[in-house]
Amino acid sequence: VTARPLRFEDEALLVLDQRALPGRETWIRCHSAAEVADCIREMAVRGAPAIGVAAAYAMALAELRGEDLERTGTLLRATRPTAVNLAWAVERAQAAAASAGDTGSLLELARELHREQDEADRRLSALGAARFKAGDRALTHCNAGALATAGYGTACGVLRSAWEQGLLAQVWVDETRPLLQGARLTAWELERAGIPHRVVADSAAGSLIARGAVDRVVVGADRIAANGDVANKIGTYPLAVLAARHEIPFYVAAPISTIDPATPDGGSIPIEERDPAEVSEHGRAFNPAFDVTPAELVTAIFTEAGVLEAPYDEAIRRVAPG
Amino acid sequence: VTARPLRFEDEALLVLDQRALPGRETWIRCHSAAEVADCIREMAVRGAPAIGVAAAYAMALAELRGEDLERTGTLLRATRPTAVNLAWAVERAQAAAASAGDTGSLLELARELHREQDEADRRLSALGAARFKAGDRALTHCNAGALATAGYGTACGVLRSAWEQGLLAQVWVDETRPLLQGARLTAWELERAGIPHRVVADSAAGSLIARGAVDRVVVGADRIAANGDVANKIGTYPLAVLAARHEIPFYVAAPISTIDPATPDGGSIPIEERDPAEVSEHGRAFNPAFDVTPAELVTAIFTEAGVLEAPYDEAIRRVAPG
Known about the structure:
The structure is a homodimer.
Chain A lengths: L5 E4 L2 E5 L10 E4 L2 H9 L6 H17 L4 H9 L7 H15 L5 H25 L6 E5 L5 H4 L5 H10 L3 E7 L6 H13 L3 E4 L4 H6 L5 E4 L3 E3 L4 E4 L2 H10 L4 E4 L5 E2 L29 E4 L6 E4 L2 E3 L3 H8 L3
Parallel strand pairs in A: 4-5, 4-7, 5-6, 7-10, 8-11, 10-13
Antiparallel strand pairs in A: 1-2, 2-3, 8-9, 9-12, 13-14
């Protein structure tokens, strides 16, 4: 049932257009890195780990076409500023090209990163699911599923793993304005996996938590700073505040590649502002795509290298020494 | 510039259809209480005080047509369960009919309640604005403006009054899913009043508050319990929690008719659940229309009878002895 948003065939990257889901399943065939960059910028492919994988394939396409890898990397990194996986994948490709030199090596690297992502997802999902108890009702925000990672999924992977072990009763899915990744993508993935779920307006999560209808909150991440502060889809921070107030766990599920030891704290993470028209056709709007949750509100971070807990600076130095 | 959502002319109540705003200004001509009840149920007219005024006119229409006032009251009260102003207006009309008896008295009563609402709004707005300081940036949720009260407005009235006194720099407007009353109605009212504003996704309010971009939160109310707990549009409670965490004032602006001394606390307030299709066309959804904010998170309640502050039970007994 795992959705596969990225496929490489016949010297092209096929990108499942997530803007059209769940209504239509259309694929965009990218023959060049520039076409992949467009897909990332316009959010045909989205989710921090998935855009890292897409960027790795884009670097491979650039290599196949004999394009300048430095310039391609710069183009890719400029598409979306908050997710750090993108820069991480570009750097790995540039380093590999510098050391190897034989054409075709970057395609192998991209395929390897893609496989690694799936393995990381499965490991961190199992670690996260181990925290669940039978009958738990979880709440998630945005989409941190297979569509967002090109693997098993991170936050949704934890939910899938908990469900497979009989430890999950139901999922509350924040619709996630303005682009409705929860209502469109997470609900679609949970439906395919047969996991009971209900979509709610983002603003309803507070009263669900206050009523005792949520046992755990699980979200993904776009960048984790060296001190454990977490940038994720706008609307994540209020959930962490509400979880703390009502004393339920707030978990972050993310691969190590999401951790950026070079960013000291959340205040240093660049927050992308997107087109105000996504929010309101009627008037002037302000549309930050992400917010920052301070580490003090995070119960645990599930990674493929283990479960991180406070003090996060030490835990992060251990798994991502920068 | 005050929008007038309700007008009584030629033995009919004209209802401005708020579902079509700001795109189109269409009026629904109601000749019977049943037609007014439809407008309330379908939210052509919405906002706790405005549906109270509409219900008073509906009772007058029933009287003019010689319809049973008991049955009309029951019909009106069943349209929307959370707002208490509706029940309050119906009861006032029934009591007036029982004591007076001459046909036409209920139309006079409705006009009087309508005038009283505007006067109450202006008084409570001035009291609220007195709490503002020059340069303040306020955040509001849903629409508690002229459209919601058929008067000067409550939360938006406070903002208008603060603006007129040079004490307001900007308003952040929560779009207010699922029906977008903020993006559609509040933005429209603020535009007409010339007040600078930006619309944001509901989930963005948390990071605005965390960044220090909000000095005060001001909302309306659909019912205030005897202990000061406040039912208001879904998404109000998370704002109160965030305001408390970041130590900024969280104000409620509402006429005395919104206070229900017969409801001991927020847990006893019935929360209307609306059609899940309002939230998601794609999957199963859960759509509570309101949430409850505990009195402990409310800095002050602005009413026409004065500013209420903790301990709310005493303050409420003073102004609404029930």
